[in-house]
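Ligand-bound model needed. zinc ion.
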Amino acid sequence: MSYRHILVAVCVAALAVMPRGAMGAKGRDRPYLGYVLATAEAASDEQVEQIWRLAENVLEPHDPAPGPHRLVITRATLRRLRALNISVRVERTDVQAWIDGLYREADKPTPAPQAAATFGPFFSRVRPLDSIYAYMDELATLSQGRASVVVLGQSFQGRDIKAMRISAGAGTNRPAIIVIGTQHAREWASPVVTMGLMDALVRQYDSDPQVKRVVDNLEIYINPVNNPDGYVATFNGRRLQRRNMNSECNVDLNRNYDTAWGQGVGWSCDSDTFPGAAPFSESESQAIQGLVESLARPALLIDYHSTAAQVMIPFAFTMTPAPNLARNRQLCQLYSSALQSVHGTHYPARPGFELAQGAGGGAFDWFRATHAESIVVELGGGAGFSISNQQIIPFAEENFVAWLAVAQTLVDQTLSASAPTSVVGASALAGLDAVPAPAPAEQTGCAFVPQARTSTAVNGLFGLGVLVVALALRRRRAAHRRV
Ligand SMILES: [Zn+2]
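Prediction:
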């Protein structure tokens, strides 16, 4: 062996035992080396704009607004912000170690749930995309024809965007509920909950009359991971990836819809709320648009995010509530109270504007403006948009109960000839200016406030439906306590 060969062998051996820098456990990238976690105080609209233009990751607030901003940024960005006279306080300098810790927690083995439990071993941890897609195939096979996997389109990087269609009756003219999850890749509670809905609707059809009733009378589409490229990236080291992986500029998919598009967003390519080059410029949002527009009766859209822990009432882009909002409000309130009945978790129902501060281009605003009722569920969760393995099953359980309560009211309305499904219609936005400004009590909370435009008959019927659902919930809650 020559001297040169020996040198190469020594170098290879040294590399093998060196601590990993750019590559972490499980072969993950470590892109946050050198980043800091900091709080910047935005004292003016101009500083808000500067922060959202320069910061690599904004953890809080939800959308551009004056006040404190929690950021994960490079030291170069820290210097730039301070040079603009923005007050920035560094909280930790070991961001990569923090991210490594989040991955370690997620990778920890968790005991599989007991065989008799509502949710099985799939729900012992947050699952990567390939596991989610494999489990969807498994559920479709189990469903005896009631569920099928449909491909809504392809992501920027060419991955399938998959949804599960669940429906037991013949024909396709029944009201449809569309469920979207994981538009924002890092919000790991979202795929947990959307997969929980899918699992329960397939596996509990024969044992739960409420599930059977919903599946027999509605068309249900669940798209658990709307942003597959970003989601895969969050498993490969880019844990804080929010947007899609468009190589020109990553796009915030929930700012890419065609209602108030471009309002209240960050226009820099680096901004976490960059809305894309045009409305529906991204194949991921086109996939939802295509699905909704292919349906005979799109009746309700529920979009899951985290971690603000609240139920959002449309609209987010304006303080003015959506027209004919009473029923939509009731659905939000029902979701909130039904969820609380399971484990005591309280997600208050609030106008979306309070959180989104007027940001436009969201999926739920678009659906509400052009089709029918919509709800955003901002799930809870931990730091770094995580969900602990111990939280997974409670999240799945309580959101399934809440979702089912809302779906039951849709069935109630469908089965009643005197109460047609409330479809908002494409002209909803046109009437917006005519809607009087809400009273303060109406703006906060999702109170049962009947509006003049809603007929007494519809409200009465809805109230009866809510009462029936509440009684059913009480029984279901008792059952939960027994197991
Ligand atoms: Zn989100």
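The chain has two domains: 20-104, 109-431+444-482.
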